[in-house]
Write a structure and sequence with these properties.
Blueprint (H helix, E strand, L loop, with lengths): L3 H5 L17 H12 L2 H22 L4 H19 L3 H19 L7 E9 L2 E12 L2 E9 L6 E4 L2 E4 L2 E2 L3 H20 L5 E8 L8 E3 L2 E5 L3 H7 L6 H14 L3 H7 L1
Parallel strand pairs: 3-7, 7-9
Antiparallel strand pairs: 1-2, 2-3, 4-5, 5-6, 8-9
Length: about 260
């Protein structure tokens, strides 16, 4: 990691500006809201027509007062189905919820030794964001949040990561690439090597409390994540944490601001 003096010799300001100004899941939630807003009126009209049709049929087959209640129940059922059925909007919403939950978990870290940045844009990859960046006395961590169906087991077999009976894709590779990008940016900015550990915050799926390592990436359940980070060996001083955090603020703008600039 190098001596503490090397990080401090740059003489850069360590004032931390706007830490956390881009909240966890902010850009994912914004994308979800934009997708939901598309053709909203048409979807509401279709749900209303279908619900009224069902209500009319029920009223005709039984008593008239059963119709309105059935129509309202059908409208509610259609609304729930639209929110939960597989779709790009549902994926963005679930991703935003996972990021927010990870953000709440990371908020338990001691602010005297850790700083957390959420939802940061990665330069050179305009469509990609870094869900969470933790900079603390135990190191620097690039953390992605992922949600799977409750109760599935996350396991590593050979070169493949499995969630239940399905492969998880190249999630470990994507997390490792994001960590390398952040490490290169920080090392260049500070003129000193700054290793970044790739991690994935797991929601829903079962994973050992101490984590599961696959492809050089540590998968940890969201709830014990702060304890896992705090328990690692101390490698930075508080002054170094502030220096690295300030560099990260300069190099990694909030993703939401990047979207708005477009």
């Amino acid at each position: 990691m190098g001596s503490p003096g090397r990080l401090e010799e740059k003489g850069r300001s360590v004032r931390i500006i706007g830490v956390g100004t881009s909240n966890a899941g902010a850009s994912a939630w914004s994308r979800y809201r934009m997708l939901v807003a598309e053709h909203r009126q048409e979807r509401l009209l279709l749900r209303g027509v279908l619900a009224c049709g069902i209500g009319v049929v029920v009223a005709g087959l039984s008593v008239w007062w059963a119709g309105p209640g059935t129509a309202m129940a059908a409208f509610a059922a259609f609304t729930v189905y639209e929110r939960t059925r597989p779709s790009p909007a549902t994926s963005w919403r679930q991703g935003a919820v996972a990021e927010r939950r990870t953000g709440r978990s990371l908020a338990r870290l001691d602010s005297a030794g850790f700083q957390v940045l959420h939802d940061r844009a990665l330069p050179g990859a305009p469509a990609t964001n870094l869900d969470h960046l933790v900079i603390g006395i135990t190191g620097v961590y690039a953390i992605a949040s992922r949600r799977w169906r409750w109760g599935l087991r996350l396991r590593s077999e050979g070169r493949r990561l499995w969630v239940g009976n399905k492969p998880a894709g190249d999630l470990a590779g994507a997390a490792a690439r994001a960590a390398r990008t952040v490490a290169e940016l920080l090392s260049l900015e500070l003129d000193h090597e700054v290793p970044v550990t790739p991690m994935v915050s797991v929601h829903g799926a079962k994973v050992p409390r101490s984590g599961l390592r696959h492809g050089g990436v540590l998968f940890v359940a969201a709830r014990p994540l702060p304890d896992v980070l705090s328990a690692r060996p101390v490698v930075f001083t508080s002054a170094q944490v502030a220096t690295v955090t300030a560099a990260a603020e300069r190099m990694l703008p909030p993703m939401l601001e990047t979207l708005f600039r477009k």
